[in-house]
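B., you asked whether I could sanity-check this one before it goes into the benchmark set. Here's the sequence:
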Amino acid sequence: MNDKIQQKLNLITENSGVYIMKDKDGTVIYVGKAKNLKNRVSQYFHNSLKQSKVQAMVDHIADFEYYITLSEQDAFALENNLIKNYQPFYNILLKDSKTFPYIKVNLKEDFPKFEITRKIKNDGAKYFGPYINSVSAKDVLNLLNLAFPVRKCNEKIGKKKHRACLNYSIGLCKAPCMGYIDKTDYRKIVDDAVDFLKGNDQQIESIIKTKMENYASVENFEKALEMRDNLKIIKKLKEKVVALIPKDLSLDAFAYVTDSEAGAVCVLTLRSGKILGAQDFSCCDGAISSSETLQDFIIAYYKNKQLPDEILVNVDMDNVQEFTSYLQNTFGKKTLISKPKIALKNNIIKMAEQNAEEHLFKRVREDKLKFKRTLGALINLKEELNLKSIPKRMECYDISNISGTNKVASMVVFINGEPARKMYRKFKIKTVEGPNDFASLKETITRRLSELDKNEDESFSSKPDLIIIDGGKGQLSSTYEVLQNSNHKDITMISLAKRYEEVYKPNSQVPIMLKRTSEGLKLLQRIRDEAHRFAITFHRNLRNKMEYHDPLLEIRGVGKEKMRALYAQFETLENIEKASQDELKLVKGIDPALAKRIYKYFNKG
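And here's what the prediction gave me:
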């Protein structure tokens, strides 16, 4: 602990608030919250035995700051905002948190329909799900539509139509759009469908079984087999029922386990008495208490999901009331959070805990390797190249062309040491004549930097910590000149030469030779190779598009539709070339003037 930290610890308040930990470069590496800031922050610097994952973070702390909040609920909100802003390495970050499908129905409508959605809105509609594992939302919705004749279309009810659609004809809809059913009778069908989504399988099973028998009796065996497959899906749903659990019980169970170096969380999703699935996550954060780890995880987990009626946890939660209020204000629903004591719910959380332990056992080695290849490699790179900060966002650029034709450039992005493919971008070189990689790179970097301040594109508006140029000293010099003439001179730029894997830094004639075993070098090689692959793929696709361009499309008045009509009539391009004007005029859509242009195109002599 340095003198600066000791002085701050002496002055820190006992109020509730949020604290941020920084490394020697001023980079925020952890954000936490506390009911008592003085007690919590001091815990990090006491000589007491800490978990390895916490000590690993403490070893990198060079300074800290804190913000006082009026309440613990405000601390939850501020902490969440700061984590989003800084994306610290030692906080739980569920990047691109997967959104699972729900089945949605708006019962406020007179004639509601059921549909699949991945977006949860506070719109008064009912959402059933999420559907996670073996039984998909699509399967469940198909079952529902098969058994209950609710509308599937987006037709506006009340708008006059000439006739009912095919679904009415085959008995899959009661055609409310035609006024063939009133609101009361339609609502009864909707209520039965909702009852099925709530867990009542008996009625739908009876309906599907009757349909199967009817199809079989008229020897429509294809449809009978389809009904049999639907019965298998219903059987799968039944198998997910947990004995003794009430059908109206909907909850998520969160179990967190740790071996002091790494941690794992299992989320068990239970809806209407059925276990819809289990998800396992690895996590390694800098929180001192398991309660704080789990609270941060839960906030990140529900980013794109709907809160259940109840949340079970396997640890004693701090500030449960404030945490519950924060979730309600953030996600628009009140939920009960508890560590179960009764046998039934305790068995559920034990099931989740066993899954988490199994995941931790299997994944701890993989996670250590991942850390070595990502965060560990970034730390290694910062030290070996003497960078001013850990390069959380890295961008690599490469040029691809053949003899100066179809020149393209690639921009590949790694965030926290991993590919961020949604952030990749590509360029067609516009101003360079011939095979000039130096000039092509200058154009690419100029265009990329010009996009930084526009905020028109998610990737282009994000500032890189490190730009890597595929090439040697010459490529670096030409692009660094562009950087120095821009408003973004603070961005670090290097190049990686492929032959000997030398790293060049601006204004230095002597390359840096990293050890072949260096994780930092391996990371540079990965992003360089990915930039090369991305550029080559773009170039190849562009070249193929040019090569397979049909000459018919060069004729004024011939589009894809007329081109297809010509091929339908004459079969080959050779036959089209030999056709007379009179023969061409027989093709649908080809008038005499166009027939003349086509004929002249192929008979210029």
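One thing to flag: The mean pLDDT is 86. Otherwise nothing jumped out at me.
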